[in-house]
Write a structure and sequence with these properties.
The complex is a heterodimer. Chain A contains 13 helices and 15 strands. Chain A is of the alpha/beta class. Chain A has one domain: Rossmann fold. In chain A, helix 8 links the parallel strand 9 (about 175-180) and strand 10 (about 200-210). Chain B folds into four domains: about 5-215, Pyruvate-ferredoxin Oxidoreductase, domain 3; about 230-410, Rossmann fold (3-Layer(aba) Sandwich), CATH 3.40.50; about 430-500, no CATH class; about 505-620, Rossmann fold (3-Layer(aba) Sandwich), CATH 3.40.50.920. Classes of the chains: A alpha/beta, B alpha/beta.
């Protein structure tokens, strides 16, 4: 039975195990491991070709995790807070790659905030995950900028400062795909990942991912227990591949919206809050502000707007990646140099 | 003499010839001119018209813009050196165009006795110098010929000195007109608008001024076939021919014009038949991002560069270390200016050398190239991209403001003499045939094989990182892995050394003193060398073109009893590097290290080198 399962292969001819990476060195129970597993599952289900994927990260617990999935894909573990810059360069160098970037709340919300916002502003085509646990794990539990206001932690003490809402920052920066999820809600993480991979530009996923070592007391809004008890999904999500027909089940609750994605696939949203439409930017911002005020843990697709071109589209890059251009495209011929020289005589 | 004693005697008056000037024989094609104007009044057009006119007359010429960090309103000085012998180092001027009220007194005072001043008669200097030849130009009157108003009238005002100088120095008006046409990209309306004023000023000067100074120019053939270009333009053009396809940058003087030039050349030279660009230029949010993008693109296999200056280099330190250790190609042009923070942002220096050479934390050593001319800026433009790919490491090109932003004569650039070198990159077939482990030293030269993202072979992927890794690029904290890796990088550095451009060495038979320098100090050194040689005071010279030090440096030092390293910084940074590299030879190495923001003059070099050369001669 087990053997039969491992040799099951997808349309790319790969087994699920072949989407794995090296064994995780993170704590047992860490939310990041769960997310890595969902990435593996999604890559397998979508039959992604590993050579078409680029993995990116910054520094921190979260940023270690790209080693633990898609071992047959190239990756770049950049500097603390600098995933955005390296990713931008790599995806300009080869804009045919699909990138999965994994960052943390410290990596993105503090040291890398500038780069994060400028990446979104440029709309670099990449799935940008923040594995958000509100603390710095590798340096033993300091508050991060997304730590909840008023939170008390054994090591870090009392947090006086308001949390930065990364989804709000993303919308402000012009991001057209903004979602929040919870590492304990594997199905939602998977559906959002699939939709994110189909998006035209940067797709931002803020995934609350509990730190079992430093921030998992039941009272903490970033703990498993709190998440399980308080998660308030805005929609039921179902990603539908390009060729598949959408079957409407009349018995489902809520209003159904079908959102076409850039690659021809679609996202089914069954609204659980009937008055919320993530395509309305003002509504998205208002919903986030209300969630903060009312201490709601909303998840799902918060904002969606596919109209802005990706950075590569705006740069008018052709079919061939800059990295693969043949020499004759890179070096103009001798008479071109002579022509320029004449102008400087 | 600078004659403070002459201060306060009222305005300079035309028609007060300095004694004995008339008896001097003419000084032909040897002129150190300074034009003092107000920044932002369009004087650059007038100055470049003059510069190009001398160049078009076939006379060796060079211009230096000594300008403030300001868009409009502060004083600016443009130095033009005309020299039949071809020397283009900065020289203290003896011919002044005084068109700035704010600096006119100091400018007049700075002239040597016998100097010449062309003064805007509408200004009111309080300095009077009887030992100068002074010509007063009625600028307001001359402007009656133009219908320009406001700012354009200010611009036109600067054309009056072009006309007056054309008369005084014997520059044909047709040559001036052609120079303006080049400057304005043949927009005849602009040319005509300026020529009206130039012609009126020329005619006025011919009718009203008695030539009382010895300076004049006459055509020669010394610039035949040469070009006139800035170092930043040359470097950008070289990069275009080196196949740069990603440029990421953050604006900073004096590197900005490098990227401006790149953005001018790329659309013309680097589009496919269907019009698609084969490049992207990204204005990043800061210099950290700029080099991060360069390394990201380099990792992906694209040729990438950034251009910056000292403060930007500071921000790039962490990425430079990552690039060295993760072994990612990329090119960083540092157009050096002076000091930290804002420092002296519009002045030149060589103070970044020590910092750049070991930029990064931990053990880091970088490739650093030193262009000294527009030809070398072009050559290092394409060569740096080859070296970065071949050696899989960041390559720094250390230029400076003087070279980067000023116009220099040079030979037309030579087309690269070999195809692009992409280094050790494995295709899917290569991986299939030979296997792949990112950091295994297959060839024993320390340079390992890499694959690019997008490679279809299932064994081609690796995770690039700055964290400890083993030869398979897998995370490792084992001490042995760290040592293996860093020792291989040290081996790679010896491969790097052998790949560096050789120094330009001139060993003079019998000379016991050798001078080592790099970059733009060469011009003052070469002029001093020629002057001193005329007196029988000879020294050898070595112009370093790269770090790590090529082996020719040791041989040069060993061949001389005394070696003087000349550099534009306070702390003798190159001297320190050379002494550390050859501790046994250190006692014979001396430094002439000085930085005031201005390019060296031959006078300064001569004064500093003469004692070494004389002592050596006496000992001999």
């Amino acid at each position: 039975m087990d053997r039969a399962r491992t040799i099951l292969s997808n349309a790319a001819g790969l087994s699920k195990a072949e989407y794995g990476g090296t064994p995780s060195t993170l704590c047992v129970g860490c939310g990041h491991n769960s997310i890595a597993n969902q990435i593996i599952q999604v890559a397998f289900e979508l039959a992604l070709k590993p050579h078409e994927i680029l993995k990116l990260s910054g520094i921190g617990c979260s940023s270690k995790s790209p080693a633990y999935f898609l071992g047959m894909s190239h990756g770049f573990n950049a500097l603390h807070g600098r995933m955005a810059a390296v990713g931008t360069g790599a995806l300009v160098g080869n804009h045919t790659l699909r990138a999965i970037g994994v960052s943390g709340d410290g990596d993105t919300g503090s040291i890398g905030m500038g780069g994060f916002k400028h990446l979104l502003r440029r709309n670099v085509r990449m799935v940008y995950l923040v594995e958000n646990n509100g603390v710095y794990g590798l340096t033993k539990g300091q508050f991060s900028a997304t730590a909840d206001e008023g939170l008390d932690l054994k090591y870090a003490g009392h947090n006086e400062l308001p949390a930065i809402d990364l989804c709000l920052e993303a919308i402000a920066a012009g991001c057209g795909f903004v979602a929040r999820s919870f590492a304990g809600d594997a199905k939602q993480v998977r559906e959002l990942l699939k939709a994110a991979l189909s998006h035209r530009g940067t797709a931002f996923l803020d995934i609350i991912s509990p730190c079992v070592a430093f921030n998992n007391d039941d009272v903490s809004p970033k703990s498993y227990a709190y998440g399980r008890d308080h998660e308030q999904p805005l929609q039921e999500l179902g990603w539908v591949p390009v060729a598949e027909e959408i079957v409407i089940d009349e018995s489902d609750p809520g209003e159904l919206t079908v959102v076409p994605l850039h690659d021809g696939s679609r996202l089914k949203l069954r609204r659980l809050e009937s008055d919320f439409d993530p395509r309305d930017r003002d509504a998205s911002v208002a919903r986030l502000l209300r969630a903060t005020r009312d201490e709601e843990f909303i998840t799902g697709l918060i904002h969606y707007d596919p109209t802005r071109p990706s950075f590569a589209e705006a740069a008018h890059l052709g079919d061939v990646p800059l990295a693969s251009l043949p020499d004759e495209r890179l070096r103009p011929p001798p008479d071109a140099l002579e022509r320029v020289m004449l102008r400087y005589r | 003499m600078t004659s403070d004693a002459t201060e306060g005697r009222g305005p300079v008056r035309d028609g007060q010839p300095a004694a004995a000037v008339n008896e001097l024989s003419p000084i032909v094609n040897e002129l150190a001119l300074v034009v003092a104007t107000v920044n932002g009044t369009g004087s650059q057009t007038a100055n470049l018209a003059l510069l190009r006119s001398f160049f078009a007359m076939g006379i060796p010429v060079h211009g230096k813009n000594i300008f403030p960090s300001n868009i409009q309103g502060l004083p600016t000085w443009y130095h033009i050196r005309v020299d039949a012998a071809g020397h283009v180092a900065r020289r203290e001027p003896s011919f002044l165009v005084a068109y700035n009220q704010q600096t006119i007194d100091a400018d007049l005072r700075a002239l040597p006795a016998g100097g010449v001043a062309v003064v805007n008669a509408d200004l009111a200097p309080s300095v009077r110098r009887d030992d100068l030849v002074t010509y007063e130009v009625p600028v307001k009157d001359l402007l009656r010929v133009t219908e320009q108003k406001g700012k354009l009238r200010d611009y036109a005002a600067n054309m009056t000195y072009v006309g007056v100088l054309a008369h005084l120095l014997d520059v044909p008006l047709a040559t001036v007109e052609e120079s303006l046409a080049i400057h304005f990209g043949r927009r005849q309306k602009l040319v005509d608008a300026n020529m009206v004023v130039i012609r009126a000023s020329f005619e006025w000067a011919r009718a009203s001024l008695e030539k009382r100074d010895p300076y004049r120019v006459e055509p020669m053939r010394a610039t035949d076939g040469l070009i006139l270009m800035t170092g930043n333009e040359a470097g950008a053009l070289g990069s275009v021919f080196g196949g740069v396809s990603v440029a990421a940058w953050y604006p900073i003087t004096p590197s900005t014009s490098f990227i401006d030039a790149l953005r001018d050349f790329l659309p013309e030279l680097r589009r496919t038949e269907s019009g698609e660009p084969t490049y992207t230029v990204i204005q990043s949010e800061d210099e950290l991002a700029a080099i991060g993008m360069v390394l990201g693109a380099g990792f992906a296999g694209a040729r990438a560069l950034t251009a910056t200056s000292g403060p930007g280099i500071s921000l790039m330190a962490e990425f430079a270390g990552l690039g060295y250790y993760a072994e990612v190609p990329g090119v960083i042009w540092d157009i050096q200016r002076v000091g930290p923070s804002t420092g002296l942002p519009t002045r030149t220096g060589q103070g970044d050398l020590g910092f750049v050479y070991t930029l990064g934390h931990g053990d880091t050593k970088h490739v650093v190239l030193f262009p000294s001319s527009i030809e070398e800026c072009f050559e290092f433009g394409w060569r740096s991209l080859d070296l970065a790919d071949e050696l899989q490491t960041p390559v720094f090109v250390l230029s400076d403001l003087d070279l980067g932003m000023n116009n220099w004569m040079g030979k037309p650039f030579e087309y690269p003499d070999r195809p692009l070198r992409r280094g050790k990159v494995l295709s899917a077939d290569d991986v299939e045939a030979h296997g792949f482990a990112r950091y295994v030293d297959v060839d024993g030269d320390g340079v390992t094989y890499r694959t690019l993202p997008g490679n279809r072979h299932r064994a081609s992927a690796y995770f690039a990182r700055g964290t400890g890794h083993n030869a398979q690029a897998v995370y490792s904290e084992r001490s042995e892995d760290w040592v293996d890796n860093t020792e291989r990088l040290a081996r790679k550095f010896e491969t790097v050394r052998a790949a560096m451009p050789a120094s330009v060495v001139d060993v003079v038979a019998g000379a016991s003193v050798g001078v080592i320098a790099f970059g733009t100090t060469r011009y003052a050194i070469e002029e001093a060398r020629d002057r001193m040689a005329g007196r029988g005071e000879r020294f050898s010279s070595l112009r370093l073109r790269a770090l790590p030090l090529p082996d020719d440096v040791r041989a040069f030092i060993e061949a001389h009893e005394r070696v003087v390293v000349v550099e534009m910084n306070r702390d003798a940074q190159l001297t320190g590097i050379i002494r550390a590299e050859y501790p046994g030879l250190a006692p014979r190495i001396e430094a002439v290290a000085y930085l005031d923001g201005m390019p060296f003059t031959a006078d300064f070099i001569e004064e500093r080198l003469a004692p070494y050369v004389r002592i050596a001669a006496e000992v001999a």
